[in-house]
């Protein structure tokens, strides 16, 4: 039998599959304290609208009805806090992320906002939750950082209840002529420069830009979601294809 390929990519570099996670962790350790500020600066505030669209799609109950949400790769709790603002008293939110520093910022933000969100250090490839624990799983700008995406999708499927909803917000591919060149110019020049100016680290943001280019096209990623077992899989491009909101159901 032939061994499966052991390589993957870290931005535009080819790296050993087992080496990628440590490199990703270094990136988010270095940016954690300025992560939310950087999102505002890089996207001109647009990430807020993308995340609000994600929260609208989650549609948490506004009343006492029990509802459990896992926000995977939830970092500084930005999505979880938005859901908490909209949800009723029956909603229980768990943030899982592999990075201690990102989670620390999230815990501080949730405490300041007086929201009882649980923050757990966990790898998306091996979730520490029983089968069928959650009504919804969200992951925003996280999946492309995970070395074994298929494994993570399998784990998400496993921890969702039957009838549960998976929603994934991720950078996508701009295919509007003119906008694509402008987007490239902005991504490869302006974003690393903002990273250098704000956190003294252009490389972290070069990785982010490159990793977006290496992520599968939306139709290919939708196929991966289907292959993990999800049904009624769909995706909605936003902002000219800069990001896409993917949706699938465990039925
Ligand atoms: C771009 S940030 C997104 C944070 C947050 N979801 C948001 O939208 O603001 C990517 C996050 O993925 C996390 N991450 C990377 N690899 C992971 C893994 N294998 N398991 C869980 N989280 C992971 C990083 O630690 C980081 O917090």
Describe it.
The chain is α/β, with parallel strands linked by helices. It has helices at 17-31, 35-43, 46-58, 78-86, 100-112, 149-159, 179-199, 202-214, 218-227, and strands at 7-10, 13-16, 67-72, 91-97, 118-121, 134-140, 160-171, 231-238, 243-249. It is built from nine helices and nine strands. α1 crosses α8, α3 packs across α4 (78-86) and α7 runs antiparallel to α8. The strands form two sheets. A seven-stranded mixed beta sheet has the order 5-4-3-6-7-9-8, sandwiched between helices. A two-stranded antiparallel sheet has the order 1-2. S-adenosylmethionine binds at residues 21, 24, 28, 73-75, 78-79, 97-99, 102, 123-125, 140-142, 145-146.
- H-E string: EEHHHEHEHEEHEHHHEE
Uncertain segments: none
Shape: globular
Strand order of the largest sheet: 5-4-3-6-7-9-8
Please state the CA-atom Rg, rounded to the nearest Å.
17 Å
| Number of separate strands | 9
- What level of helicity do the residues show? 40-55%
Attached small molecules: S-adenosylmethionine
Going by helix content, strand content and strand pairing, the class is alpha/beta
**Distance between the amino and carboxyl termini:** 35 Å
Which percent band covers the strand fraction? 15-25%
Number of helices: 9
What's the average pLDDT? 94
Q: How would a crystallographer describe the biggest sheet?
A: 7 strands, mixed
């Amino acid at each position: 039998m032939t061994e499966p390929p052991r390589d993957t990519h870290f931005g535009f570099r080819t790296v050993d599959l087992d080496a990628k996670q440590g490199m990703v962790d270094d990136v988010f350790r270095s940016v954690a304290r300025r992560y939310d500020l950087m999102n505002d600066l890089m996207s001109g505030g647009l990430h807020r609208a993308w995340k609000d669209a994600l929260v609208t799609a989650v549609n948490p109950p506004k009343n006492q009805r029990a509802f459990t949400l896992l926000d995977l790769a939830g970092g500084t709790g930005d999505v979880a806090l938005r859901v908490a603002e909209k949800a009723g008293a029956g909603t229980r939110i768990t943030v899982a992320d592999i990075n201690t520093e990102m989670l620390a910022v999230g815990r501080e933000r949730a405490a300041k906002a007086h929201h009882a969100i649980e923050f757990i250090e966990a790898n998306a490839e091996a979730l520490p939750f029983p089968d069928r624990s959650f009504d919804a799983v969200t992951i925003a700008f996280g999946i492309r950082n995970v070395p074994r995406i298929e494994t993570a999708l399998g784990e998400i499927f496993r921890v969702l209840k039957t009838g549960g909803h998976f929603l994934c917000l991720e950078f996508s591919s701009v295919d509007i002529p003119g906008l694509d060149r402008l987007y490239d110019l902005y991504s490869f020049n302006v974003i690393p420069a903002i990273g250098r100016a704000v956190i003294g680290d252009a490389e972290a943001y070069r990785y982010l830009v490159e990793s977006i280019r290496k992520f599968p096209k939306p139709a290919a990623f939708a196929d991966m979601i289907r292959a993990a077992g999800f049904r009624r899989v769909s995706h909605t491009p936003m902002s000219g294809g800069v990001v896409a909101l993917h949706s699938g159901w465990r039925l």
